[in-house]
Amino acid sequence: MTYRELRPPSGLESVVACLWQHDAVEGAGTRVVPDACVDLLWLGDRLFVAGPDTGPVVWESLPAVSGIRLRPGAAGPVLGLPASEVRDQLVPLADLWPEAGAVTGTALDDEGRRRWLTGSVLRHRADPDQLVRAAGRRLAVPGARVGRVAAELGVSERRLHRRTVAAVGYGPKTLARVVRLRRLVDLPGPLAARAAEAGYASQAHMSDEVRRLTGLSAVRFLEDARRTAA
Prior knowledge:
Blueprint: E1 3-6, E2 16-22, E3 25-32, E4 38-43, E5 46-50, E6 57-62, E7 65-70, H1 75-79, E8 90-92, H2 100-103, H3 110-124, H4 130-139, H5 146-153, H6 157-167, H7 172-186, H8 191-198, H9 203-214, H10 218-223
Antiparallel strand pairs: 1-2, 2-7, 3-6, 4-5, 4-7, 5-8
Helix pairs in contact: 4-5, 7-8
């Protein structure tokens, strides 16, 4: 298997979605699509932060990669800076956490790399922004509107936008688009029915949104969406 996930470490379930491993790939094209998460990863023997994506990222070849995936809304508090500062970027982790510089270039096996990532997140652990998490749950409901969600949470749209940008890396409207895409992946049935159930205005709307977020047609993306690295 090229990509596989492991359960989040004990004590980090509220912050970490999973640990993961991606085998080396040559010339096959590995597509990463937005999922509202941020990853800390070993790319070869170097450590990086893969910020929240707003569009597709395609790797034509990859060395073996392993990482830890922070849940939506956890990145800002754990990294100690607004998640928007690493949006759509691959940033050396040592730029944020100096201790990462001490292990960059060292030869660790897979278990050693997972242990280092887990220990580092434990040391930097911070509570996710609960307002943003609540907003994320509400925005995951088909037909949800940002203004209505903000009102339900007792905050202005502007305040919700600011808090979401800091915690997730982009605003609630983009977050709503991303969670709708993830919802679409999990639905069965023909395209029109899936589009309606996921909350798109029409099948054409779904097709436009899928292409913007993944770079692929809806048919092509949904054919192998579950094999796409998140």
